[in-house]
Design a protein that fits this description.
The complex is a heterodimer. Chain A contains no helices and 12 strands. Chain A is an all-beta fold. In chain A, the strands form 3 sheets. In chain A, strands 2, 5, 6, 10, 11 and 12 form a 6-stranded mixed β-sheet that branches. In chain A, strands 3-9-8-7 form a 4-stranded antiparallel β-sheet, with no helix packed on it. Chain B is mainly β. Classes of the chains: A mainly beta, B mainly beta.
Chain lengths: 115, 116
């Protein structure tokens, strides 16, 4: 069974600074997808970034980028120029194959951006 | 982006009654939808996979007779919590898979169920 581990229950960062959230996973699959989701106080799940395992290039979305280390099964999220609106729970998630399978979530990291 | 709605957003019901939660994909067809449950300050746990036109697949430990799932059309899945008890109080989130173009999973806004 696949597992996703987020070892940082809580983190804080000063506004405009950079923060990195950690995620490791365990799978025997060779093809899979990894995601970072943001859950603000509204509790709506918002996709931040996705990475296909077969792509070596790290995904980026504006201020968000990942460091995908397939051999190490590591998938960290870097948030640059942190903004107050980035305050939320962040979940790392995994799904196998083509992506039409359920997501396996980590326990989440609560990020607070401080003014 | 694609939109998934849930109704109601909040519901309070008395112990012993049943409550139905709807999950709709508004601008795409979804042959597969998932139901997750989230306890306060916890992560999302998969309850079941809902497939259009067939029986739902439940995760281990989830009572299929208590959490009835019906996926009657390509845009609607319903979760009915039968004979609800206070321990069923939780946040229920659905997601729908869009398979046209890039496969993507879209989440509904969630339903907060409180059983008194």
């Amino acid at each position: 069974a696949q597992t996703v581990t987020q070892s940082q229950p809580e983190m804080s960062v000063q506004e405009a600074e950079t923060v990195t959230l950690s995620c490791t996973y365990d799978t025997s699959e060779s093809n899979y997808y990894l995601f970072w989701y943001k859950q603000p106080p509204s509790r709506q799940m918002i996709l931040v970034i996705r990475q296909e395992a077969y792509k070596q290039q790290n995904a980026t979305e504006n201020r968000f980028s990942v460091n995908f280390q397939k051999a190490a099964k590591s998938f960290s999220l870097k948030i640059s120029d942190s903004q107050l609106g980035d305050t939320a729970m962040y979940f790392c998630a995994f799904t196998q194959n083509s992506g039409n399978t359920p997501l396996v979530f980590g326990k989440g990291t609560r990020l607070s951006v401080i003014a | 982006g694609a939109v998934v709605s849930q109704h109601p957003s909040r519901v309070i019901c008395k112990s012993g009654t049943s409550v139905k939660i709807e999950c709709r994909s508004l601008d795409f067809q979804a042959t597969t939808m998932f139901w997750y449950r989230q306890f306060p300050k916890k992560s999302l746990m998969l309850m079941a996979t809902s497939n259009e036109g067939s029986k739902a697949t439940y995760e281990q430990g989830v009572e299929k007779d208590k959490f009835l799932i019906n996926h009657a059309s390509l845009t609607l899945s319903t979760l009915t919590v039968t004979s609800a008890h206070p321990e069923d109080s939780s946040f229920y989130i659905c997601s729908a898979i869009r398979t046209s173009g890039r496969v993507e999973q879209y989440f509904g806004p969630g339903t907060r169920l409180t059983v008194t």
